[in-house]
Amino acid sequence: MYFVYQFQQAEDPKGLTEALWRHKIAHQIVLNKAHNELWIMDPQQLPTVKSLFELWQQDPILVQKAHFEPVATSLHSGERGLLSQVRSAPVTSIVLVLTVLVALLTQLGGDLNSVGYFSISPLEIRNGQIYFFTLSQVVDKHEYWRFFSPALLHFSVLHIVFNTLWIWDIGGKLERILGSFVWSLGVVIIAVLSNVLQYYISGYPLFGGLSGVVYGLIGFAWLLPLLDKHWPTLISQQLMAFFMVWLAVGYTPLPEMLGLGGIANTAHTIGLLSGITLAVVYGLLTRLIARNTHPQ
Fold this sequence. Notes:
The chain is mainly alpha-helical and 296 residues long. The protein has helices at residues 14-22, 46-58, 71-74, 81-88, 90-106, 112-115, 135-140, 157-178, 180-202, 211-227, 237-249, 254-257, 265-293; strands at 2-6, 27-32, 35-40, 124-126, 129-131. It is built from 13 helices and five strands. Helix 1 (14-22) packs antiparallel against helix 2 and helix 8 (157-178) runs parallel beside helix 10.
């Protein structure tokens, strides 16, 4: 993150921050010893930020009507839509491509031999029975990727469509705000915790999906605006209520009755709790970094 400006106590950054979000400039307003500070993610957007800032200083109302061509697209004026979103959220795009490739390779879970490469435990099929390993045995085999790879497994079209759409939407927005490194670290933490605890509690390795990560991102994006009023609202209260209801439904026989199969409820719950915890940690760390970078 890059420091831009420290507001005076009498200055309200609300109008400026609304203009920045309208121009798709990822930023944060951090409270540092009674003063709000403006930080941005991408220094290449600094010219646009400065233009908006100068206009805001002249007239906070006029800045709402301002429009500047984003620097990120000025080099490729014909680049729009999907390609532009892929460039701005590359890790999100990579995760989705890998998810689709794994779905094709495993035939949506229909090819158990292929599934065994990505499940949390190697699978051995002998005499019609599935044999698998404990977590400690997986560690002994040094197959550490298995703690993450079940997130790439999906077992139905509805399953993969639901998860990839939310990863593309909420995950892409968070990557643009947080930056690719921080976003990737959060996704890995959420996926590993969800997968490991799901296996530890259920004792069965045939599960998978990005649902735990989806719930983690939802929890993260929902809580941060409550911790920091300047953080953008990505998850409405109604949408959060829907996810909570669906989480509760997952603990009932209803999904199987509807033909959706069993749901890895532990992974969903752990994912949600992990995302909420990461939101708290992230909020505290960004404030601490801001204070240490610009002490009063």
